[in-house]
Write a structure and sequence with these properties.
Radius of gyration: 18 Å
Strand content: 15-25%
Helix content: 25-40%
Shape: globular
Order of helices and strands: EEEHEHEHEEEHHEEHEHEHEHH
Mean pLDDT: 95
Low-confidence stretches: none
Largest sheet: 8 strands, mixed
Number of strands: 13
Distance between the termini: 19 Å
Number of helices: 10
Structural class: alpha/beta
Oligomer: single chain
Length: 265
Amino acid sequence: MNRTQQPVRSALTIDGRRLSYLDFGGPGRPLLALHGHLSEGASFAHLAEALGDEWRVVAPDQRGHGDSDRADDYTRAGYLADLVALLEHLELGPVPLVGHSLGGINAYHLAAEHPGLVSALVNLDGPVDLPHQEVSPLAFLARLPYTAATREELVAACGPVGPVLAPGMRPLPGGEGWRLASHPQDTLDSESHVHGDHWEQWLGSHCPALLVHGRSSQVLPGEQAAAMAARRPGTSSVTLEADHFVQLQDPAGVESAVRTFLAGL
């Protein structure tokens, strides 16, 4: 059944910092959905609709993204502290986690460090071994402005990626201009912390897991995806004809895989 109600935006305060989240509601069991870099909780609206009344999707804007305040650091510890605070605030847990990229990494780290809060994992193309690179693939962000007087000026100033970033642009308080959904430098700082070896955390939980991999992913090579599924007990995998942004390129495929996995829990 497809939902018709609009998500409710709420927030909690953590150490003086606002953490915003969307609750898509419904009578179903709760599920926490975690977006990747250059995204926000609203990116899971399509999945929430597809899951209908069977699941109540809660999707935070992770620190520094969307309507959530910028943070002093973007380490894994910081991200996980926010998620623990949110689940405690909502009195939820254990819950399934769905995470894309950064969100997938945060999800399996949370499962390893706080197993009592996580009942299942869905990792959407989140790698476990991301080599450090001399030049980040997101280095272009350093050339982008964070704000502009109008939305049109901000889109134009962002060049070729302007149309991609446009849906997340927001007006500044008091009508003083427009801003991106996340500060370019914050994203670069956050991205720097996902590089490295995360095998210990991927293998450090025992709940059921699903890995959804894009065959032409720029981030998760096919060999690594196959090893992730093979080495972690209780893990199934689905490969879609998409790149790293699987939920954008094949939303129906992602929704079908996630529904089937959740139905088997």
